[in-house]
């Protein structure tokens, strides 16, 4: 295309022709046809297709220019395009036939979109005949500029301008984000193994899921995880070596390096042909004995993690005359006084004392009952065995024929010398001696079979006394803590660590009565199952001391006076200085406040919300609580204002309690209570005598406890005319005076009541505001607002009524059902909680069938296929087969909490709940109406903002979000503060503002013109139980003003932004114009479970957790994606119910029923995490070995040592079979160097390493210098010899 006068056209080597001779129309004329009229503004210049043929069989595209413009014809078969390049700025629009294979609109955008210039006007293109030269660079420049303008147009379409948005400087970038786990708190879930390092004072717990938890002093904890996830069957410390060996159920041994803040695996050894059953590592030995299911014993070098060739075969250990296999190895230990003697216990009851040097059995001990454990006396002359019939046998080493003594600790001693009745197996026994008294025999199990219902026990036998200590849960394992690590010395036990199924107990053996130590670890999170939790970072600094001061009075008495003995490790350097609080709600109605500052966890205060209700003595006394008969007080939602210290909780029995914080004790004579009928139903034509709901108006500002809600049935009786339960709350409030201790004290109890035999639906959203004195809550029936200062109901509306005449779905109110048909196997899905599904008791559920499918159809605008990923607040009915029913029954059996605590069954749409009693036919005409009207309140937010488009200043209001993606605004007219606030009513009125999003609304927040978060108004906390001062001015309650810059509000009409996050998308709305400034579709194939607007690095962002496991962050207000990391698949709904984000890049969720996992998405926190973590290993000198004494040393009575290296080494025992076990190197070495690279110890190690390297390099340099000097001397010598050799020779003699 470098020819100025010609352009190649056509195909098959067509000759180039002058541009003036190109035929552009069918008539063969060289002139261009006249231009069509210009297109209307804002539309593309597409025209009706018109074919232009350049030669037979070819098609082209013609672009038209007016006269006077230069034209460039680019003819690339089969499309021919004319580009116009005016000498002045472009002002012509090109028209392209729409049938072309090339996109006409794209080329139009590339070439500019200005209006067409009529022919003959200045600046028009010259005719094609006058065009001589062109520059290809201008073509490319024009295309580049056009593409940028096209992208700008698309961006303007994505963000409609409305009025021009002010530019907000956003400081957050993607490099500010990094996701990593920080710490895990709570009790190890499903524990299976226990170990203790008596020198380092570190405790290790293994679990059935392959987790490893290490505990040092309070505040020093560590969590590790085996990649395989196999159960940990045994743990063995390398005492005072900073290492740990773990044996897993998949027959793998792992060596953990504990000399770094994050322990890592150094070596692994996988047994291929045998199953590992027991391990034993002698003190100060590097050889690990491994017993297997076949009865063999292998020996592993823990330094190299390789097998020795020395093997003890089971057939050599037992007697040759024995015809049966002895069973798996259940015990291995060496004689405390002779390391060359190994005691081997087989499950069948056979015990063998094996001589390692002679490789033969010295003694064999046989008993009829199976063996569970064996323990040595420290002198090495006796050992004790525990058996499956509840007996203990004590054996002398040199008397293998029969035991010296047989004890049945819990058996009834029969007369006539008969054998005691058998008891339950004694699972473990330990034999510990003291210098000053009788030895301790400590055992678990062994209870009599007739003790039905008796709790698990730990038995401590000391001399003639036997103490039976009952435990709350099953005993998994126990260890006796002793003063010395040497097995051949007096043990001097001082405590027993008991690992229970759901607790860790430490018993003091030194005090009478064996009191327990007060556990300083946060292991009682699951004291009652956690049903919800909230996380608050950067709280007011005086909040944690205030909660601690009232919580310290709740501590139990009777603990041991000694300090907690597990005190190893050192604390990390806390870089986080801001206070953090975690609040957990529990199934028993309790609420716990935790201090979570600096990656630690400590309980501060516990509130029992069930104290305001009457306790049911038996099932006959609780006819109203049958919808949640097992845990009627369970906490469902928590709303807390840290600044005002106001607390509001919603319970599973459709009750709401408001609490104030006070440091004074008070006695409440009468508990204030409100009952609310939150069910929107209007009677049909058949019942005209019942009054209709009154129109929305200002409620009477009375201070009595009776609400004035819109009602459809009389509220004077507890049952309606047809005998159905009516106006009855689920719980009964106490009618006696209530003593309230310092802390959170009840202010008001609100209960939803039964209506016409239908139970109240569970509360799905809750909000409280201390500045307004209001609390609001909603469910799938509607919304209610209560003035807790005046104790009156302000608002009681069905969700449909909030729309008024603006209902986009044109739904009609439901008419009451007068008959109920059997379900005939129909399926019911309910949607009550935001993010989780809610399940009532099957016998009383009256939920509408498949209404949620209709809701999805409405919100999405398209039909919902059965297999699409369902939102937790939406679902669909599907065929119910036997497999699904079996899944559901199993799930309910395993998780009883699910049907009463709004704990979901599953995310799968086919896992539905069957209602056999009160479901109605799918063909009912009422069902279709219910299907559309079932819209739950999913989000509530008090704020001071613009309620309508015409507002010129912000005012108090409530923003309401629903499960259909609708946001409605309710205006609040508050009376003045002080006494007027208690006398004049609050006026509540819907504003008519309706906003729409895709998916259920999850979170709302507001920004000012600078992009800063506008917090809800609050009233600073003050002690309200102290008499007020006389000065009336100081008595006035003033709201905290919302900070809005006056200059910005005057200059810019849109001086606030509303940030709304739903399950599918996020929008930023400009206020008061209500224009959509920014929009981001968060997910298409999944849905958002949790979304929070949080502060990070002096800015704010939107953090989201999706059901597909992704954690995402978006900038505000522009909603730029900043983080998208696949973190955690939604394996169960516990995660969905408890996941929450908070400020400064912190988040948490309940990873198991007993553990809280904390994580961070902040790059700064990830970088400082290594310094914040505590150190498990600290350099400690090993205690001195016990003195053998003169006579023992003289006559050989002391402990005998063994050269295991000589015995088990490769030189004497040979190599082990390669097929027996496979060695797997771990990443611990590299991670250990990285872990040691930070901190003071790391700096010293790095400096020492650098010095060593420098010294090594200097040594190498010195050696090389010496070698060079020697070489130079040698070269000089040879040169001198050569010179002497040829000195006197002539040139011709060479």
TrEMBL record:
<dbReference type="GO" id="GO:0006887">
    <property type="term" value="P:exocytosis"/>
</dbReference>
<keyword id="KW-0597">Phosphoprotein</keyword>
<dbReference type="Pfam" id="PF08366">
    <property type="entry name" value="LLGL"/>
</dbReference>
<keyword id="KW-0853">WD repeat</keyword>
<feature type="compositionally biased region" description="Basic and acidic residues">
    <location>
        <begin position="1024"/>
        <end position="1035"/>
    </location>
</feature>
<feature type="compositionally biased region" description="Pro residues">
    <location>
        <begin position="33"/>
        <end position="42"/>
    </location>
</feature>
<feature type="region of interest" description="Disordered">
    <location>
        <begin position="144"/>
        <end position="166"/>
    </location>
</feature>
<feature type="region of interest" description="Disordered">
    <location>
        <begin position="95"/>
        <end position="129"/>
    </location>
</feature>
<feature type="region of interest" description="Disordered">
    <location>
        <begin position="1024"/>
        <end position="1049"/>
    </location>
</feature>
<dbReference type="GO" id="GO:0045159">
    <property type="term" value="F:myosin II binding"/>
</dbReference>
<feature type="domain" description="V-SNARE coiled-coil homology">
    <location>
        <begin position="1229"/>
        <end position="1289"/>
    </location>
</feature>
<keyword id="KW-0677">Repeat</keyword>
<dbReference type="InterPro" id="IPR001680">
    <property type="entry name" value="WD40_rpt"/>
</dbReference>
<dbReference type="GO" id="GO:0019905">
    <property type="term" value="F:syntaxin binding"/>
</dbReference>
<keyword id="KW-0472">Membrane</keyword>
<dbReference type="GO" id="GO:0019898">
    <property type="term" value="C:extrinsic component of membrane"/>
</dbReference>
<feature type="region of interest" description="Disordered">
    <location>
        <begin position="689"/>
        <end position="726"/>
    </location>
</feature>
<keyword id="KW-0175">Coiled coil</keyword>
<keyword id="KW-0813">Transport</keyword>
<dbReference type="GO" id="GO:0005886">
    <property type="term" value="C:plasma membrane"/>
</dbReference>
<feature type="compositionally biased region" description="Low complexity">
    <location>
        <begin position="147"/>
        <end position="158"/>
    </location>
</feature>
<dbReference type="GO" id="GO:0031201">
    <property type="term" value="C:SNARE complex"/>
</dbReference>
<dbReference type="InterPro" id="IPR042855">
    <property type="entry name" value="V_SNARE_CC"/>
</dbReference>
<dbReference type="InterPro" id="IPR015943">
    <property type="entry name" value="WD40/YVTN_repeat-like_dom_sf"/>
</dbReference>
<protein>
    <recommendedName>
        <fullName>Syntaxin-binding protein 5</fullName>
    </recommendedName>
</protein>
<dbReference type="GO" id="GO:0015031">
    <property type="term" value="P:protein transport"/>
</dbReference>
<feature type="compositionally biased region" description="Basic residues">
    <location>
        <begin position="44"/>
        <end position="54"/>
    </location>
</feature>
<dbReference type="InterPro" id="IPR013577">
    <property type="entry name" value="LLGL2"/>
</dbReference>
<keyword id="KW-1003">Cell membrane</keyword>
<keyword id="KW-0963">Cytoplasm</keyword>
<dbReference type="InterPro" id="IPR000664">
    <property type="entry name" value="Lethal2_giant"/>
</dbReference>
<dbReference type="GO" id="GO:0006893">
    <property type="term" value="P:Golgi to plasma membrane transport"/>
</dbReference>
<feature type="region of interest" description="Disordered">
    <location>
        <begin position="805"/>
        <end position="824"/>
    </location>
</feature>
<dbReference type="InterPro" id="IPR036322">
    <property type="entry name" value="WD40_repeat_dom_sf"/>
</dbReference>
<dbReference type="GO" id="GO:0005096">
    <property type="term" value="F:GTPase activator activity"/>
</dbReference>
<dbReference type="Pfam" id="PF08596">
    <property type="entry name" value="Lgl_C"/>
</dbReference>
<dbReference type="InterPro" id="IPR013905">
    <property type="entry name" value="Lgl_C_dom"/>
</dbReference>
<feature type="compositionally biased region" description="Low complexity">
    <location>
        <begin position="95"/>
        <end position="115"/>
    </location>
</feature>
<feature type="compositionally biased region" description="Basic and acidic residues">
    <location>
        <begin position="907"/>
        <end position="917"/>
    </location>
</feature>
<comment type="similarity">
    <text>Belongs to the WD repeat L(2)GL family.</text>
</comment>
<feature type="compositionally biased region" description="Pro residues">
    <location>
        <begin position="116"/>
        <end position="125"/>
    </location>
</feature>
<feature type="repeat" description="WD">
    <location>
        <begin position="364"/>
        <end position="405"/>
    </location>
</feature>
């Amino acid at each position: 295309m470098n020819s100025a006068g010609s352009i190649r056209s056509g195909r098959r080597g067509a000759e180039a022709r002058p541009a003036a001779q190109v035929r552009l129309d069918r008539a063969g004329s060289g002139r261009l046809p006249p231009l069509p009229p210009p297109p209307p503004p804002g539309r593309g210049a597409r025209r009706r297709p018109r074919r232009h043929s350049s030669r037979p069989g070819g098609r082209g595209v013609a672009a038209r220019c007016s006269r006077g413009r230069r034209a460039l014809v680019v003819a690339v078969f089969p499309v021919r395009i004319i580009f116009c390049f005016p000498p002045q700025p472009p002002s012509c629009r090109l028209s392209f036939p729409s049938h072309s294979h090339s996109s006409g609109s794209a080329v139009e955008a590339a070439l500019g979109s200005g209006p067409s210039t009529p022919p003959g006007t200045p600046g028009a293109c010259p005719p094609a005949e006058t065009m001589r030269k062109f520059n290809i660079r201008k073509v490319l420049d024009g295309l580049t500029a056009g593409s940028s303008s096209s992208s700008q147009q698309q961006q303007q379409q994505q963000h409609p301008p409305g009025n021009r948005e002010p530019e907000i400087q956003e400081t957050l970038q993607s490099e500010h984000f990094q996701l990593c786990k920080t710490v895990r708190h709570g009790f190890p879930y499903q524990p299976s193994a226990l170990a203790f390092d008596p020198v380092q004072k570190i405790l290790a717990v293994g679990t059935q899921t392959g987790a490893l938890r290490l505990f040092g002093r309070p505040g020093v904890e560590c969590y590790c995880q085996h990649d395989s996830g196999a159960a940990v069957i045994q743990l063995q410390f390398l005492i005072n070596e900073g290492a740990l060996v773990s044996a897993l159920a998949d027959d793998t041994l792992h060596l953990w390096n504990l000399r770094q803040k994050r322990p890592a695996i150094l070596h692994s050894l996988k047994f291929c042909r045998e199953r590992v059953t027991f391990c034993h590592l002698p003190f100060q030995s590097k050889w690990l004995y491994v017993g297997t299911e076949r009865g063999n014993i292998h020996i592993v070098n823990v330094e190299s993690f390789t097998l020795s060739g020395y093997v003890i075969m089971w057939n050599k250990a037992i007697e040759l005359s024995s015809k049966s296999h002895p069973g798996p190895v259940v015990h291995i230990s060496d004689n405390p006084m002779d390391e060359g003697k190994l005691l081997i216990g087989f499950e069948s009851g056979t015990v063998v004392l094996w001589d390692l040097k002679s490789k033969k059995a010295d003694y064999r001990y046989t008993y009829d009952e199976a063996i569970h454990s064996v323990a040595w006396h420290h002198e090495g002359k006796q050992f004790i065995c525990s058996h499956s019939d509840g007996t203990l046998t004590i054996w002398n080493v040199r008397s293998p024929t029969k035991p010296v003594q047989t004890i049945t600790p819990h058996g009834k001693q029969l007369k006539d010398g008969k054998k005691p009745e058998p008891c339950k197996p004694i699972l473990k026994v330990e034999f510990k001696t003291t210098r000053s008294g009788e030895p301790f025999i400590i055992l678990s199990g062994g209870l009599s079979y007739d003790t039905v219902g008796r709790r698990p026990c730990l038995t401590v036998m000391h001399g003639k006394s036997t103490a039976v200590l009952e435990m709350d849960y099953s005993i998994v394992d126990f260890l006796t803590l002793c003063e010395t690590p040497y097995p051949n010395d007096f043990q001097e036990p001082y405590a027993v660590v008991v690992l229970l199924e759901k607790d860790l107990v430490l018993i003091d053996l030194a005090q009478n009565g064996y009191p327990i130590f007060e556990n300083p670890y946060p292991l009682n999170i699951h004291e009652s199952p956690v049903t919800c939790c909230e996380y608050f970072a950067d709280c007011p600094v005086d909040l944690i001391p205030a909660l601690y001061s009232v919580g310290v009075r709740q501590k139990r008495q009777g603990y041991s006076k000694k300090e907690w003995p597990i005190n190893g490790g050192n604390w990390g350097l806390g870089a986080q200085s801001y206070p953090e609080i975690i609040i957990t709600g529990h199934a028993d109605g309790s609420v716990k406040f935790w201090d979570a500052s600096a990656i630690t966890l400590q309980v501060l205060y516990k509130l029992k919300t069930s104290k305001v209700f009457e306790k049911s003595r038996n099932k006959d006394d609780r006819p109203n609580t049958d919808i949640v008969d097992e845990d009627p007080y369970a906490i469902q939602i928590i709303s807390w204002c840290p600044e005002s210290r106001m607390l509001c909780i919603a319970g599973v029995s459709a009750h709401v309690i408001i609490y104030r914080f006070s440091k004074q004790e008070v006695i409440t004579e009468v508990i204030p209570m409100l009952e609310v009928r939150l069910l929107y139903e209007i009677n049909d034509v058949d019942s005209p005598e019942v009054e209709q709901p009154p129109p929305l108006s200002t409620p009477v500002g009375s201070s009595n406890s009776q609400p004035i809600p819109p009602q459809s049935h009389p509220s004077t009786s507890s049952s309606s005319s047809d005998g159905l339960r009516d106006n009855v709350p689920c719980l009964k409030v106490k009618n006696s005076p209530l003593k309230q201790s310092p802390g959170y004290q009840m202010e008001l109890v609100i209960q939803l009541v039964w209506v016409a035999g239908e139970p109240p639906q569970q509360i799905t959203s809750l909000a409280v505001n201390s500045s307004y004195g209001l609390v609001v809550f909603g469910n799938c029936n509607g919304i209610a607002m209560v003035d807790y200062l005046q104790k009156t109901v302000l608002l009681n509306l069905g969700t449909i009524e909030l729309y008024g005449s603006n209902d986009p779905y044109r739904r009609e109110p439901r008419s009451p059902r007068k008959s109920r048909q059997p379900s005939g196997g129909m399926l019911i899905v309910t949607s009550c909680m935001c993010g989780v599904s809610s399940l009532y008791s099957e016998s009383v559920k009256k939920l509408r069938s498949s209404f949620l499918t209709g809701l999805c159809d409405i919100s999405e605008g398209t039909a919902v296929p059965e297999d699409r990923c369902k939102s937790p607040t939406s679902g669909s009915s599907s065929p119910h087969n036997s497999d699904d029913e079996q899944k559901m029954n199993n799930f309910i059996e395993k998780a009883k909490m699910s049907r009463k605590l709004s704990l979901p069954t599953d995310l799968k749409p086919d896992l539905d709940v069957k209602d056999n009693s009160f479901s109605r036919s799918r063909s009912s005409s009422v069902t279709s109406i219910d299907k559309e009207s079932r819209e739950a309140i999913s989000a509530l937010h008090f704020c001071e903002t613009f309620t309508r488009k015409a507002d010129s200043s912000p005012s108090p209001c409530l923003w309401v979000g629903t499960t259909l993606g609708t946001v409605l605004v309710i205006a609040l007219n508050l009376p003045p503060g002080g006494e007027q606030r208690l006398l004049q009513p609050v006026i509540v009125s819907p504003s008519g503002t309706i906003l729409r999003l895709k998916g259920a609304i999850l979170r709302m927040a507001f920004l000012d013109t600078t992009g800063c978060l506008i917090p809800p108004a609050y009233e600073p906390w003050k002690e309200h139980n102290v008499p007020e001062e006389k000065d009336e001015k100081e008595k006035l309650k003033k709201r905290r003003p919302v900070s809005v810059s006056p200059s910005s509000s005057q200059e810019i009409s849109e001086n606030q932004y509303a940030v709304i996050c739903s399950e599918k998308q996020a929008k930023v709305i400009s206020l008061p114009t209500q224009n959509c400034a920014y929009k981001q579709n968060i997910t298409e194939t999944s849905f958002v479970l949790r979304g929070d607007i949080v502060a990070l690095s002096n800015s704010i962002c939107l953090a989201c957790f999706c059901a597909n496991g992704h954690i995402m962050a978006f900038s505000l207000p522009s909603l730029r994606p900043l983080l998208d990391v696949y973190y955690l698949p939604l394996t169960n709904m516990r995660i969905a119910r408890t996941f929450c984000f908070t400020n400064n890049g912190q988040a948490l969720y309940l990873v198991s029923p007993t553990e809280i996992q904390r994580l961070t998405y902040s790059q700064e926190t990830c970088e400082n995490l290594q310094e914040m973590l505590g150190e498990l290993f600290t350099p400690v000198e090993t205690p001195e070995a016990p003195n053998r004494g003169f006579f023992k040393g003289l006559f050989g009575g002391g402990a005998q040592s063994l050269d295991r290296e000589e015995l088990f080494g490769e030189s004497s025992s040979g190599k082990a079979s390669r097929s027996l076990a496979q060695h797997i190197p771990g990443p611990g070495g590299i991670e250990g160097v990285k872990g040691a690279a930070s901190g003071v110890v790391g700096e010293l190690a790095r400096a020492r390493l650098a010095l060593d390297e420098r010294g090594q390099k200097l040594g190498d340099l010195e050696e090389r210098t010496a070698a060079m000097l020697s070489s130079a001397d040698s070269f000089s010598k040879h040169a001198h010899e050569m010179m002497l050799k040829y000195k006197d020779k002539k040139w011709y003699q060479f």
